[in-house]
Amino acid sequence: MPAPAPTPGSETKGAAAAEADAILAALRTQIAVQSRGRLAPEDVDVDVNVCDYGYLDSLSYVEFLLHVETTFGVWVLDVQFVGRFNTLRALAAHIAAVRPGAAG
Question: Residue 32: which CATH number?
Answer without folding.
Answer: 1.10.1200.10
